[in-house]
Automatic annotation (TrEMBL):
Keywords: Signal. Belongs to the UPF0065 (bug) family. It comes from Noviherbaspirillum denitrificans. This is ABC transporter substrate-binding protein. It holds the Pfam family TctC. The lineage of its organism: Bacteria, Pseudomonadati, Pseudomonadota, Betaproteobacteria, Burkholderiales. It comes from the Bacteria.
């Protein structure tokens, strides 16, 4: 009976609005990716996909909300690399990053940029390093809370220069960007999705990108590897998740709609403008994403433990 009803259920899915939880504040890069992907998925699923921003604790509050949601396919989580760093950072996590979810698919690979308020007194990354070390009790670093991508990049940066800076946590790097633009906070490492337009309009300063090679849409920016931090590399990926127990045919419908979104001309064009790459199809399947997420958890846990960073 259950199998029959699941099959019938899956056949008619979706019959109502789907809520896509973004575990960061509106206006940030994760939110931007979610709205683009959600808009396209609602077209192919024939139901509205509404975005709900549930910020706080580096994305773990929003992730916990979805982990506990009914596994009926009407609540999904659009998260990022923070799904793989939270297990090492939060010792009292109320969910298991791998076992509390059904991975639906990988979405993007996003470079990060090292940026500062526009009158920060350093003309290049070498000068920034010198200034930060000489003024370590003064310089403030913005992030979206322990477990965010901006936190991870900051943690790697502070470990690399062996200098702890005052960090100012926000519910997302959307609000953080407002303070950077206003000069209330000094530096930040954030996704190109959020920084590209501000860099190009000269409203903030950019010192480098965190990827192995330069970013085409910001080609005059050196990699941090070139600019003074050898082998410094971190890139943000975004993934879509449903609660554990969501029927496989429903996960497959969501996966199919996600794959369609990644081929959507509008999504691809917008991503390209934002320096964001949609992942190749092969990496975007549920099984491929589960394997990737496990590999990322295994990769970041020892690095986080070595840095001695944790949230609680
Ligand atoms: C992050 O730092 O994790 C993200 O930029 C947060 C956000 O998307 O607002």
């Amino acid at each position: 009976a259950l199998v029959a009803s699941t099959a019938a259920y899956a056949q008619s899915y979706p019959t109502k609005t789907i809520t896509m939880i973004v575990p960061f504040a509106a206006g940030g890069p994760t939110d931007t990716v979610a709205r683009l992907v959600g808009q396209s998925m609602s077209k192919s699923l024939g139901q509205q996909v509404i975005i709900e921003n549930v910020g706080g604790a580096g994305g773990t509050i929003g992730a916990a909300r979805v982990a506990k949601a009914d596994p009926d396919g009407y609540t999904v989580l659009l998260h990022h690399i923070g799904q793989s760093t939270a297990p090492a950072l939060y010792r009292k996590l109320t969910y298991n990053a791998l076992d509390s979810f059904e991975p639906v698919g990988l979405i993007t690979d996003v470079p990060m940029t090292f940026v500062a308020r526009k009158d920060f007194p350093a003309k290049d990354f070498k000068e920034l390093l010198a200034y930060v070390k000489a003024n370590k009790n003064k310089v403030t670093y913005a992030n979206a809370g322990v477990g965010s991508a901006s936190h991870l990049c900051g943690m790697l940066f502070m470990s690399a220069i062996d200098t702890d800076l005052t960090t100012v946590p926000y519910k997302g790097t959307g609000p953080a960007m407002n303070d950077l633009l206003g000069g209330q906070v000094d530096i930040m490492c954030d996704q190109t999705t959020n920084t590209t337009s501000q860099i190009k309009s000269g409203k903030i300063k950019a010192y480098g990108v965190t990827t192995k090679s330069r970013v085409a849409s910001l080609s005059d920016l050196p990699t941090l590897h070139e600019a003074g931090l050898p082998n410094f590399e971190v890139a943000v990926w975004h993934g879509l998740y449903a609660p554990k127990g969501t029927p496989k045919p429903v996960v497959d419908s969501l996966s199919k709609a996600l794959q369609t979104a990644l081929k959507d001309a509008t999504v691809k064009q917008r991503f390209a403008e934002l320096g964001t790459e949609p992942v190749a199809e092969a990496r975007a399947t549920p099984d491929a994403h589960r394997a990737f997420l496990k590999a990322e958890i295994d990769k970041w846990s020892p690095i986080i433990k070595k840095a001695g960073v944790y949230a609680d």
